[in-house]
From TrEMBL:
<keyword id="KW-0732">Signal</keyword>
<dbReference type="Pfam" id="PF02140">
    <property type="entry name" value="SUEL_Lectin"/>
</dbReference>
<keyword id="KW-0430">Lectin</keyword>
<feature type="domain" description="SUEL-type lectin">
    <location>
        <begin position="126"/>
        <end position="215"/>
    </location>
</feature>
<feature type="domain" description="SUEL-type lectin">
    <location>
        <begin position="36"/>
        <end position="119"/>
    </location>
</feature>
<protein>
    <recommendedName>
        <fullName>SUEL-type lectin domain-containing protein</fullName>
    </recommendedName>
</protein>
<dbReference type="GO" id="GO:0030246">
    <property type="term" value="F:carbohydrate binding"/>
</dbReference>
<feature type="signal peptide">
    <location>
        <begin position="1"/>
        <end position="23"/>
    </location>
</feature>
<keyword id="KW-0677">Repeat</keyword>
<dbReference type="InterPro" id="IPR043159">
    <property type="entry name" value="Lectin_gal-bd_sf"/>
</dbReference>
<dbReference type="InterPro" id="IPR000922">
    <property type="entry name" value="Lectin_gal-bd_dom"/>
</dbReference>
Length: 229
């Protein structure tokens, strides 16, 4: 089922039979400004395929002469290009000016078509001075969506902890350290401690909260062995 707008969004009609996940396809015509992928606020993008060119005569043909839509054997693979900009993001906008830097078929009116799924990240919470353990199944690697060390809830990591040390919930320190340590690995451990992340709020018992997804390794990336820190 097609919905036509500035960017044509093909509704989630393709069912991934093995996982039950619906795929969405976004098509953006050559002369439009932005190619946009978006998931719900609690989900992130997992790009499945993308190409720029033309595979049929009907897409993005309104008002165009027949000769500019007749070449349907024209497709430049854009998977790596879109993954680099959109993978594991909740929303992604790719300027069409960047897409148009490649021209797989001069004289043909083209479009970019991207198929993606929206997946819900896993969340791992580790109390201060304990080890966070992130892991993915065989054949997949970690991609960190977000991470922070601090406290934003008075009801998390409270066991055997003085009441006063759990009341400062205005203590949220986003960090890139987890992504730098764990991205691209199947398993990763990292200590939730001030020595690793600094101390964003003294006299508060903190925790490390990590949201991550398990993704297929990048085809262009050399194999990374399991790692710990």
């Amino acid at each position: 089922m097609q919905h036509f707008s500035a960017t044509m969004l093909l509704a989630a009609v393709c069912l991934f039979m093995a996982s039950g996940i619906f795929a969405e396809t976004v098509i953006t015509c050559e002369n439009e400004r932005v190619h946009t992928l978006e998931c719900q606020s609690n989900e992130v993008i997992s790009v499945q395929s993308s190409f720029y060119g033309r595979k049929n005569r009907n897409t993005c043909r309104q008002g165009k002469p027949r000769w500019v839509v007749s070449n349907t054997d024209c497709a430049q693979d854009m998977l790596d290009f879109i993954k680099e900009r959109c993978e594991s993001e909740q929303r992604c906008e790719v300027p069409m000016s960047e897409v148009r830097t490649v021209d797989p078929c001069w004289g043909t009116y083209k479009y970019i078509e991207t198929e993606f799924t929206c997946i819900t990240p896993m969340t791992d919470v580790t109390c201060e001075n304990f080890m966070a353990k992130l892991r993915c199944g065989r054949g997949q690697v970690i991609s960190v969506v977000s991470a922070y060390y601090g406290r934003r809830s008075s009801s998390v990591c409270t066991l055997n902890c003085p009441f006063v040390q759990t009341q400062n919930v205005d203590c949220e320190n986003p960090t890139d350290i987890v992504a730098e340590t764990c991205n691209g690995r199947r398993r990763c451990t990292i200590k939730a401690s001030n020595s690793v992340f600094g101390d964003p709020c003294e006299d508060t018992y903190k925790y490390l909260e990590v949201s991550y997804v398990c993704v297929d390794p990048d085809d262009s990336q050399t194999h990374l062995s399991d790692g710990n820190r």
